[in-house]
TrEMBL record:
GO biological process: intracellular protein transport; vesicle-mediated transport
Keywords associated with the record: Cytoplasmic vesicle, Golgi apparatus, Membrane, Protein transport, Transport
One GO CC term on file: AP-1 adaptor complex
Protein name (Swiss-Prot/TrEMBL): AP-1 complex subunit gamma
Family annotation (InterPro entries): Adaptor_Complx_Large_Subunit, AP1_complex_gsu, ARM-like, ARM-type_fold, Clathrin/coatomer_adapt-like_N, Clathrin_a/b/g-adaptin_app_Ig, Clathrin_app_Ig-like_sf, GAE_dom
Domain GAE: 739-854
Cited SMART domains: Alpha_adaptinC2
Locations listed in the record: Cytoplasmic vesicle, Clathrin-coated vesicle membrane; Golgi apparatus
Family: Belongs to the adaptor complexes large subunit family.
Length: 857
């Protein structure tokens, strides 16, 4: 006889499976047992049906397929005996779920069992329905469940209430059928029935506004009375948990009161006294008491305003912060962040405790406390809070330094009372965690420094001192060498000394030493070395006595494998050696950088030639990455305020090319020079033009004029018969081969303007590239910005992502698209568009049709 057959007991099968030493042995045991069960099912052996299903449930829990036994559940449910029904319903809940079509066959059996005379069978049916009820079953069986809410046995009423919760979640429209029965359950004395009744009322209030008003008017007083009775009840061993009577019922009642009091002042007034009693009398030395207090705080913060209660609630959260349990402290920090919008003054009183949480060993508590401290900072407390955070920055863990540094920089920049304090704090941050400071932060620091002329000397001296103690911080080195390059004379001469400063002696050679160290340091990257070369070039102009040494240091990079450094070294060496007359103009002190313009670019509301995002880099031909944002932004090349060349550099092009374009004139005229033939030939060779007849060249271009000679303009040169075709080839095709199409205003409303700019490639006339420009005409910020478009079938549309999904006030974003017209020349382009965005969380939608495309597209 086979070891495994239909009559094998469940315990024997479990013993055999546990005795398996390998997964293969276990699969063999399960496979044999499943085969025996299938044989028993085929033979319709009723005596072993409940045993087979019990074994199938165990096999199912092991993760093996048991779908072939689902019908056995229905057969057992349809039997008359309680043991068979119990196994059948257990199998139904375990082996099936609400998505199985087989469940349709069990609805009738459930209905019969819900009306059964045996209350235990009724309980089985309610348990099954509460676990696997689908929307169809809920509609069919809701009347039976509603009736059972008035059943004589409390256990049946409790199960019926739980089943009603499932029905309401599946079909919210049925909530009105359960409103009155649920209200009657709130008067129950049996705690099991009462807690399920409160839960049922909570679910009904969530899905039905009408029921919510009904419970507010009819049940608020009763709920307050019930909560007061439980809070003041004597010791009851049946419901006692850690010295507190039924904390689970406490929490359920508080949740329901929170829903009833939210948005209703009258209901909130009724529950103020009991909430104050629960908050003040509940013991907090046990976890059950803390759970009740937390739920009470949530209720107080959600109902209508009561200043005294809210202060009491925030004080409870302050006590939670001193708890040794990390979970309690974390939920307290979360709750305080919500409370901050309600009563910031009460939260401010716990600032010291919150600050201690920033120094906690738990990473989650650290980050949450830091976010809360960031929200607590204002103009009045920024100095002590920044001091505490910077002091902790010195001893904080490496994983936390990045977040902490970002928050400190943001706080200091946002709430700085004066520029000298801002500079001091930023220097401390750069000295302690400069490698964690983002680019836009130290760019902003340099902008502030340039706008504080009375602090230039103080700043460069402070940076010089810091550089000797924290040379490993890359960002500190960059800011320091930038300032030394600009204000080296103030550093050496001790100009602009403040009373709080200590005197410092720095020679010209010392200033060069600092920058040389930055270039040669093994950790310095390309950007730092490039900035150091610029600083050396400026120092050579400030301190002529150091020119030879600076030239030597710069020349050491002529053989650098980094093309950027090699190019700078060659150019700067040439400037120092050959172009003394223009060096002072090239390295004049930087003009004051406009703070408002920089802030606008940083926020993205103003266009900028170079992106200042973290990904702003240019690819150098030899593969080295050059950070573009710092140098371009600092030089402010897009500004019209750049200093013009002085009279010492009258013939700028001559110095730029490194050749002598002029010769001495026997009769010099003020402000003019006689161009030589050789110089003209060089310039024309540069433009790929043959040797023309001697003529003067436009003075605006070369800063030279011919005496008593007509000026040859660009048009004259291009139309000259002596100019070969190579010049025309150089400029050929810019007008004829790339047609220019006028831009159009595709859509305009009171809030938004959309413009389209078009380009087409001559080799593909059917395709049109469109750059859509979206302009916000309001002072509000558009968030979740989304542009959608649709075209007819003869057009194909490809949309690229927009440059941003947030459109700042009076700002601009762009989005590119390509439209391919299969009927080009026959049918014009047309487009339907829709724009969606949010203003202060409110959804906005604008639609329109674009018919004014140029016909030639």
């Amino acid at each position: 006889m086979d070891t495994f057959f239909s009559g094998t007991r469940l315990s024997d099968m479990i013993r055999a499976i546990r005795a398996s030493k390998t997964a293969a042995e276990e699969r063999a045991v399960v496979r044999k047992e499943c085969a025996a069960i299938r044989a028993s099912i085929n033979e319709n052996e009723q005596d072993y049906r409940h045993r087979d299903l019990a074994k199938l449930m165990f096999i199912h829990m092991l993760g093996y397929p048991t779908h072939f036994g689902q019908m056995e559940c229905l057969k057992l449910i349809a039997s008359t005996g309680f043991p068979e029904k119990r196994i059948g319903y257990l199998g139904l809940m375990l082996l099936l779920d609400e998505r199985q079509e087989v469940l349709m066959l069990v609805t009738n059996s459930l209905k019969q069992d819900l009306n059964h005379t045996n209350q235990y069978i009724v309980g089985l049916a309610l348990c099954a329905l509460g676990n696997i009820c689908s929307a169809e079953m809920a509609r069919d069986l809701a009347p039976e469940v509603e009736r059972l809410l008035q059943f004589r046995d409390p256990n049946i009423r409790k199960k019926a209430a739980l089943c009603a919760i499932r029905i309401i979640r599946k079909v919210p429209d049925l909530s009105e059928n359960f409103t009155n029965p649920a209200a009657s359950l709130l008067k129950e004395k049996h705690h099991g029935v009462l807690i399920t009744g409160v839960h049922l009322c909570t679910e009904i209030c969530i899905v039905s506004p009408e029921a919510l008003e009904y419970f507010r008017k009819k049940c608020t007083e009763g709920l307050v009375k019930t909560l007061r009775g439980i809070a003041n009840s004597p010791y009851s061993p049946e419901y006692d948990v850690a010295g507190i009577t039924d904390p689970f019922l406490h929490i359920r009642l508080l949740k329901l009161l929170r829903i009833l009091g939210q948005g209703d002042a009258e209901a909130s007034d009724r529950m103020n006294d009991i909430l104050a009693q629960v908050a003040s009398k509940t013991e907090s030395n046990k976890n059950a008491g803390n759970a009740i207090l937390y739920e009470c705080v949530q209720t107080i913060m959600s109902i209508e305003e009561n200043g005294g209660l809210r202060v009491l609630a925030i004080n409870i959260l302050g006590k939670f912060l001193s708890n040794r349990d990390n979970n309690i402290r974390y939920v307290a920090l979360n709750m305080l962040m919500r409370a901050l919008t309600v009563d910031s003054k009460a939260v401010q009183r716990h600032r010291a405790t919150i600050l201690e949480c920033v120094k906690d060993s738990d990473a989650s508590i650290q980050k949450r406390a830091l976010e809360l401290i960031y929200l607590l900072v204002n103009e009045n407390n920024v100095k002590p809070l920044a001091k505490e955070l910077i002091e902790y920055l010195e001893v904080s863990e490496q994983d936390f330094k990045g977040d902490l540094t970002a928050k400190i920089c943001s706080i200091v920049e946002k709430f700085a009372p004066e520029k000298i304090w801002y500079i001091d704090q930023m220097l401390k941050v750069l000295s302690e965690a400069g490698n964690y400071v983002k680019e836009d932060v130290w760019h902003a620091l340099i902008v502030v420094i340039t706008n504080a002329p009375d602090l230039h000397g103080y700043t460069v001296r402070a940076l010089y001192r810091a550089l000797h103690t924290s040379c490993e911080q890359e960002t500190l080195v960059r800011v320091a060498i930038w300032c030394i390059g600009e204000y080296a004379d103030l550093l050496v001469n001790n100009n602009g000394m403040l009373e709080l400063e200590e005197p410092i002696t720095v020679t010209e050679s010392d200033a060069v030493d600092v920058v040389e160290t930055a270039i040669k340091h093994h950790t310095s990257d390309v950007t730092t070395k490039a900035m150091a070369l610029i600083a050396l070039l400026k120092i050579s102009s400030r301190f002529p006595s150091c020119s030879e040494r600076v030239k030597s240091i710069i020349g050491q990079n002529k053989g650098s494998f980094v093309l950027e450094l090699q190019q700078r070294s060659m150019e700067f060496s040439s400037v120092i050696q050959k172009h003394q007359n223009i060096r002072s103009s090239l390295v004049e002190r930087m003009p004051v950088l406009d703070e408002a313009t920089f802030s606008g670019r940083r926020a993205g509301s103003l266009p900028t030639a170079v992106s200042t995002s973290g990904k702003s880099s240019l690819s150098i031909p030899n593969g080295v990455v050059k950070a573009a944002a710092p140098l371009v932004d600092l030089l402010d090349l897009s500004s019209d305020d750049a200093p013009a060349p002085t009279s010492s550099s009258a013939n700028f092009l001559q110095d730029l090319l490194g050749v002598d374009l002029t010769q001495p004139s026997p009769h010099p005229v003020s402000g003019t020079m006689q161009p030589s033939k050789a110089g003209a030939d060089i310039l024309l060779d540069l433009l790929s033009v043959g040797s023309p007849a001697p003529s003067s060249i436009n003075g605006d271009l070369l800063s030279v004029h011919a005496k008593n000679a007509p000026v040859a303009t660009n048009d004259t040169i291009l139309s000259s018969p002596t100019a070969p075709s190579s010049m025309m080839d150089l400029l050929d095709g810019f007008e004829d081969k790339v047609p220019i199409y006028p831009s159009i205003v595709a859509f305009e409303s009171s809030t938004l303007k959309i413009e389209f700019n078009f380009t087409k490639q001559p080799e593909n006339p059917q395709a049109t590239d469109i750059v859509a420009s979206f302009t916000n005409l309001t002072p509000n910020v558009f968030t979740d910005f989304l542009f959608q478009a649709a075209v007819p079938k003869f057009l194909q549309l490809h949309l690229d992502p927009s440059s941003s999904n947030s459109l700042t006030a009076n700002g601009n974003i762009k989005q590119t698209m390509r439209v391919t017209n299969s009927q080009h020349g026959k049918k014009p382009m047309v487009m339907r568009m829709r724009v969606g965005y949010k203003i202060d969380g409110k959804d906005m939608l604008e639609e329109g049709q674009i018919n004014n495309f140029p016909r030639e597209l």
